[in-house]
Design goal:
The protein is mostly beta strands and 174 residues long. It is 0% helix and 37% strand. The strands form three sheets. Strands 3, 6, 7, 8, 9, 10, 11, 12, 13 and 14 form a ten-stranded antiparallel β-sheet that branches. A two-stranded antiparallel ribbon has the order 1-2. Strands 4-5 form a two-stranded antiparallel ribbon.
Length: 174
C-alpha cells in the first residue's frame, strides 16, 4: 500500500501521542524498531504542497495541544454533520474506508514529494482507493465516526511518517 502503509499515528486518542499505524491491520506494514519522534519543524518547509482548508469549521484543537495529556498530531475542526470535506491538495487516495480502532471513516491522500494528508471521523466517504483527486474536490461529508463525540474533522499533514503542523501550510483565515 505504497509508503502510506508505514504511516503511524499516536496511541490513545485518535490524534495523539505515541506512534501507531493509521491504517487498519490488513493494510499495515510489519512492525519495525521505533525511535522517539523528531520535533516538527516550526516553519513551512520547501517543496510542500499548497494546501487549502478541508472544511470551513472552526479549529477546536491545534497541532501539539495536549488532549488528555497527549499532543495532537493534527488539527481538529468543528463542523455540522453533512458539510463537505475537500481534498486539501491534489493527490492519490491511498486509503478510503473504515479504520476500526479509533478513526472511524478515514481518507488518506498521498501528494507529491512524500507528503500525505489524512481526514478522520468522517460521516460519508465519497472517493475510492486509487482515485486521483484535485485540490478542493469534495471527498467526504462531515459526520461522527470512530471516537468522535460530535460531528467534526480531524485533519493531519505528514512528511513521510512525521507529523507537521497543518496551520503552517494552510492559508490564513480571517
Amino acid at each position: 500500500r505504497l509508503a502510506i502503509a508505514a504511516l503511524v499515528l499516536p496511541a490513545g486518542l485518535a490524534a495523539h501521542a505515541q506512534p501507531e499505524n493509521l491504517l487498519p491491520p490488513k493494510h499495515r506494514a510489519p512492525p519495525t524498531a521505533t525511535k522517539p519522534p523528531a520535533k516538527a519543524p516550526e516553519k513551512r518547509e520547501t517543496g510542500a504542497p499548497r494546501l487549502t482548508w478541508p472544511t470551513s469549521g472552526a479549529v477546536t484543537a491545534k497541532f501539539g495541544a495536549p488532549v488528555k495529556g497527549l499532543p495532537n498530531n493534527g488539527l481538529d475542526l468543528a463542523a455540522f454533520a453533512g458539510m463537505t470535506v475537500h481534498a486539501a491538495a491534489a493527490g492519490k487516495v491511498v486509503f478510503a474506508g473504515k479504520e476500526p480502532e479509533r478513526f472511524g471513516q478515514l481518507i488518506v491522500i498521498e501528494h507529491t514529494g512524500g507528503w500525505v494528508t489524512a481526514y478522520a471521523y468522517l460521516g460519508k466517504v465519497l472517493v475510492k482507493e486509487g482515485q486521483q483527486v484535485k485540490a478542493r474536490q469534495i471527498i467526504a461529508r462531515i459526520g461522527r465516526s470512530g471516537e468522535a463525540k460530535r460531528p467534526g474533522l480531524h485533519f493531519e499533514l505528514r512528511k513521510g511518517t512525521s507529523p507537521r503542523n497543518p496551520a503552517l501550510y494552510l492559508p490564513i483565515r480571517l
